[in-house]
Amino acid sequence: MTIPRGTPQPDGVFGLRVAAALAVKGVIAPEQVVIDAAEKIVRAGARNGALRLLTSEQFDPHELHAETLREVQMLLASLARDGATGIGLPLCPSCRTRKVVKARNEHGERECFRCTQRRSYGECAQCLRMKKLTAINADGQRVCQRCGPEGIPTFACESCGKTVTTVGRVDGRRVCLNCLPPRLRRCVSCGQQKKIAATILHGPHCFACHNRILRNAAPCPGCGQKRILAFLSEDDHPCCAACAGQPPRYACRRCGSEEHNYGRLCGKCVLSDRCDDILTGPDGEFLPPMQALRDYLLAQPRPAQVIKWLRMEPSTDLLRDIASGRASIDAVLDTPRPSKPLIYLRTLLLDAGALPRDTAATRQLMAWAAQTISEAPAEHHQMLRTYTRWVLLRRASRNDSGDIPIGAARHVKASLRGLVAFLTWIEEQQTPLASLTQAQIEEFITLRTARRWLPQFLAWAAERDITPDLGIATLPRREPTISTSEEQLEHVIRILATDRTIALDARLASLLIAVYGLPASKVLLLRRNQLRDRDASLDLLIGDRPLALSDPIAILAREQLDLLAEPTPDGWLFPGLRPGQPRDPQYLNRRLRPFGVSISELQNIARFRLAGAVPAKVLADMLDFSVATFENYARLSGSTRGDYPALRGTAPAALRKGPKIQ
Q1: d(CA 101, CA 109)
Q2: What is the pLDDT of residue 239?
Q3: Strand, helix or coil for residue 143
Q4: Could you give the CA distance from residue 506 to residue 501 in angstroms, rounded to a whole number?
Q5: Quick one: how far is CA 539 from the chain centroid?
């Protein structure tokens, strides 16, 4: 029996009938949620029509039509926000997103509220801004509300008392936007209840998901060009604006690119303007170092990060001074104890080629040494300068370019710091160097760790009659030992292979150390072209023979390669925070600290495990070690097999395929 139009129904009956009709059509939602939404949204005069539509055979909630009753659209949109499934909202013909469509455009098609409002926007004749034109000025021109004859109205917030221009209502009280509780809705991408940034594609998106779409341009399935896929095609698949027949909303207004979305201009254009503003001289020309830095910055894959860094005042001010000639670029290298921003800038200039690399570390070390020597007693300055220049710096190892590497520089710094502390202590004892006694030397080494650098200084000083002929017992060579059980090693390997809460680069690097016994310094210096993908396996080329990685490590290695933005073949596999530098070994120690193990412990037990089962020559060829290294581990493993019987469990064939991780 058909209920006459306008006949009131008892409370809850309409909601029950709507819930039953939607359940038959395949909409999955809690019954009480459907009842409450139906009773609240659908007005009394439209309930009979809504029921007839919901129970008709032509109605399909999976693909709503634009001419579907507005109350039904609003009801299903509300249910979709609350987590209901089996609902497909109509497609707005203007923005190509799935929303509730109510108003009609000039073509007679129904479009969403946002597109209707957008048509009322234009350039204000008075302030020349793109705003909603809601007023008429004295000349009869359409202007925004702020430029209208009455101006924009103001209100007093009933919560904090501020005078504001935009308000919301909470329990009938007018409050400002700061006091208005955020409206949380379900994001169709991540499924969480969050504050919504925009409605694109199939529904509302939170800020994180919205930014992910805008910041990751991809090849469009329709035209194949790299665009922002924030629209829907005729077959309901994500596509670019051109393929959806829409204006290029996210295209850069200068170059037309949709990569690196940063607002009206793309990140590349904004970065180019920023570099021109900071790096040009008074005559508008670039100095050669600044031109090299500009080219390097514009070639970076993520310009938004560079723009953010260029906002930092210390680095920006120094770059302006260098570009204008007020400061020399050599001051970046000659600063004895630079701050962290200056260290980052120095590394950036070196990686960009704006500073020469061949003597950079030596100049930095000499500037630091001059500052450190000045802190020692005045009568020892000349002696320390001579010792530093002709002993410490001459004996420091050099890399291929003739510069001092990081490890050698750290040894020089530790030695010079120790010498300054030693001479200061001698000064406090009121004893000249010529009267130094063996008892005082023994007393000092009980206070400070000095066995690595003090014997060398005492021998040098005795040859020049600066001190008496004094000696100090050097530390014996420490043989590698096992301080971690085999069970704990397997436990750490299992965690590193499966726990995704640990950083990916730390997991991969730690597994290479724990399984193959590689030193952290060699692992972190790996290049991307040392990983060779052979479809069925992934090979790591370290020594003369390729090393086939096992499945867990190979999977992590492929994920690490995919994570790197626009990788170059000779780039770092584990890039660090500083430009052109890999990760520091201390980074791995910090990540392994919660497990109670260190890098050296993982390395030693892995070498013992391999040396007890695989010939030293094979290991040396694969892992690029000297044969004597693994022969020493094999000799020591013979004395520890009784305590660690699991060391004999790795076979040569398993090593070629990669040790299995249970």
Answers
A1: 9
A2: 92
A3: strand
A4: 11
A5: 27
